[in-house]
Design a protein that fits this description.
By secondary structure, the protein is of the alpha/beta class. The protein has helices spanning 2-22, 38-48, 73-84, 99-110, 115-118, 129-148, 162-170, 190-199, 222-234, 253-256, 258-265, 277-280, 300-318, 325-334, 337-367, 376-379, 391-401, 421-434; strands at 55-56, 122-128, 153-158, 174-179, 181-182, 187-188, 205-209, 238-243, 270-275, 287-293, 384-386, 403-404, 410-412. The protein contains 18 helices and 13 strands. Its EC number is 2.6.1.1.
């Protein structure tokens, strides 16, 4: 009897402990269900669509004229060279990454003859593509820039790449926006942008797209970049460039990094996030680079070293060591004269097809006499075009035409080809007329 009583008591205590252990602090009030990422949700809906007419204009990756992923020929060559190299292994890279890759990345993004390189004013770390570079910069600013300017906000264009909001807000930076897209002209709201930069508190952080602005495809002209730099210098604003499309935008590497070179020439201290996803087609290999460029001064070299040491600590705590394979491919191409020339030709192939599709879509819409003006399609540059279509028109295109794009009307020009561009133009014409 006593034995049964003891066993019952033990069971009661066990139940109490189990009940207590099962209580979670992560209730729905604390951890609500997050909304699905809209772009990945769009991709999933496209995959589930069984229509033989469906068109994916949401994908942010290059596709050839057969709507297939394209492995750059130069990447194939580099891949073969790496596989045949008996010295290649799978050891850790240094915290800062593959040195041949980061040094070549510096020369590509700021130009090889830049005084910033010659004077040792750049420190660079290999990152997990451009996203990782933006995140590393965000961490650095949150930890160190806000020590000096604690109430400083980061200003980003309206609109901007959706992930920018998440990256910077997750490290605790206060976010503001500056006008960028002008809905009526479907071009750059340059006056609005300048006014916003003028009114922003001194020492604000300004996030800038170096080329092929995502999502609008609208870039400032060199003259406009010069005006932007003048305002930012007068206001002591801090530039952070996100460069995901160098060479992919225009087919000209030097043309696409004009803004960065100009700001460095003007003596700015700045950050650069550099991606190799688009211009090498290394989407899944996550090859990227982050650069800190010190302003010219007697202590610039020493400051650069200190910054580099702190960036290494941030990198160590986040990813420890960056992935090697994509960086090896890019490094091999960037450091070999013949392969580099072939890469430039591959870039012209990709950018040239995008430009051809812009001309084709605009031409067919104008042939159909689709209401409105469509010159913005060819005025814009890079992978994306902000069509000006409304959210309702986008929904109708998806429901009736099985054409998938983000709800703000952004389309990936890479999703167009000679086999579907006429169908897409016809469907756009129809939905525009139906919703006038």
């Amino acid at each position: 009897m006593a034995h049964n009583s003891t066993r019952a008591r033990l069971q009661q205590l066990t139940n109490q402990v189990s009940s207590s252990a099962m209580a979670s602090p992560f209730s729905v009030d604390v951890v609500p269900q997050a909304p699905e990422d809209p772009l990945f949700g769009l991709m999933a809906a496209y995959r589930e669509d069984t229509s033989d007419k469906k068109v994916d204009l949401g994908i942010g990756a290059y596709r050839d004229n057969n709507a297939k992923p394209w492995i750059l020929p130069v990447v194939k060559k580099a891949d073969e060279i790496i596989h045949k190299d008996p010295e290649v292994n799978h050891e850790y890279l240094p915290i800062a990454g593959l040195a041949q890759f980061t040094s070549a990345s510096q020369k590509l993004i700021v130009s090889g003859d830049s005084p910033a390189i010659k004077e040792g004013r750049i420190t660079s770390l290999q990152t997990v593509s451009g996203t990782g570079a933006v995140h590393l910069g965000a961490l650095f600013l949150a930890k160190f820039y806000q020590k000096v300017y604690p109430k400083t906000a980061l200003y980003m264009s309206n609109p901007t790449w959706a992930n920018h909001h998440q990256i910077f807000s997750n490290v605790g930076l206060s976010l503001q926006s500056y006008p960028y897209w002008h809905p009526q002209t479907r071009a750059l709201d340059f006056d609005g942008m300048k006014a916003s930069l003028e009114s922003a508190p001194d020492h604000s952080i300004i996030l800038l797209h170096a080329c092929a602005h995502n999502p609008t495809g609208v870039d400032p002209t060199p003259e406009q970049w010069s005006s932007i730099a003048t305002i930012m210098k007068r206001k002591s604003h801090f530039p952070f460039f996100d460069c995901a499309y160098q060479g992919f935008a225009s087919g000209d590497l030097a043309k696409d990094n004009f803004a960065i070179r100009h700001f460095i020439e003007q003596g700015f201290e700045l950050l650069i996030a550099q991606s190799y996803a688009k211009n090498f087609g290394l989407y899944g290999e996550r090859a990227g680079c982050f650069h800190f460029v010190a302003a010219p001064s007697s202590d610039a070299g020493e400051r650069t070293k200190r910054v580099g040491s702190q960036l290494a600590i941030l990198q160590r705590s986040e990813i420890s060591n960056p992935p090697a394979y994509g960086a090896r491919i890019a490094s091999l191409v960037l450091n070999d004269k013949a392969l580099f020339s072939e890469w430039e030709a591959n870039l012209r192939t990709m950018s040239g097809r995008i430009i051809d599709m812009r001309k084709a879509l605009r031409g067919k819409l104008e042939d159909l006499k689709t209401p409105g003006k469509w010159n913005h399609i060819t005025d814009q540059i890079g992978m994306f075009s902000f069509t000006g279509l409304t959210e309702g028109q986008v929904a109708k295109l998806r429901a009736d035409g099985h054409i998938y794009m983000t709800k703000n009307g952004r389309i990936s020009m890479a999703g167009l080809n000679t086999k579907n561009v006429e169908y897409v133009a016809t469907q756009i014409d129809k939905v525009v007329r139906d919703t006038e």
